[in-house]
Write a structure and sequence with these properties.
Elements lengths: L2 E5 L3 H13 L3 E5 L2 H11 L3 E5 L7 H10 L8 E5 L4 H10 L3 E4 L4 H19 L10 H14 L3 E9 L1 H8 L1 H20 L7 E6 L2 E7 H18 L6 H6 L1 E5 L5 E5 L2 E8 L8 H15 L6 E4 L1 H6 L1
Amino acid sequence: MSLVLVVDDDRDIARFIEINLRLEGFEVLVAHDGEAAEQLAYEHMPDLILLDLMMPKVDGVELCRRLRANPATATLPVIMLTAKSLSADKVVGLTAGADDYIIKPFDTLELVARVRSTLRRTAEMRATSPLTGLPGNHRVEEEIADRVAADDPFGVCYVDLDNFKAFNDRYGFLRGDEVITLLATAMRRAVGEMGEPPPFIGHIGGDDFVAVCTRDQSEPLARRIIETFDAAAPRLHDHDDATRGFVEITDRQGTIRQFPLVSVSIGIAVSGQHGYRDHREVVEVATEMKKVAKRTVGSSIAVDRRALNDS
């Protein structure tokens, strides 16, 4: 249940908003000036703040600036409430860091819709990888769970980079980010070639990615990801390393070790006649297949054939 902090010096309006939000299933805190609201924000960390523009002590613009300046509250979504409809006032609120604004008097349905929309956008942003722009771990889990519940044939591809640590040790983490970005790009391009329905792809962290698709798409998708990545990956290495086909790393004992160029391993779990009981089981199988794929030098795919044999 989402917690909303309502901040308005007009007690009747604040009470009206509180009642309507509670009727919609929200938890609500109320403050009537900026100083009290700031304290409540730090103590309770609400999911969203409805903030009146004109208030005593600390007005809405100043409070919004303070919240944005504090790392603990910098990402809290703020909707500004204002009786003014002038464009300049809207700009001031948005410039201070507000995510949206509503002009008084407002329609209750619109208010609730704006609150839900802002909360949804915030959740999506928090669930997105800042490096790749792809959905994160929570969204990936939801997608797999939805496929299990739907009970239609589907596939989950667990995509992982090989020799990524050696690449980072050789070239540094900034060039390592380029490898992760390349893999995300390869996955997007592969998805664009799969037709309908478009596969879902997510970045669960580090050099680990997931694609969720129909069962028939799973192997063609995995092959296309590898083809696209392998065609570009050598250019991310220094010319001499790419020509040799390996990088050299000196370990802690001073021994020079050789590692192959960075590549991709993909483990595929597919639903069969009996399906899966829950999403965790699917992930376990895909993880097992990824480990099998990693036994092969270079980019490789391993598919769990047990479910296919049940079909």
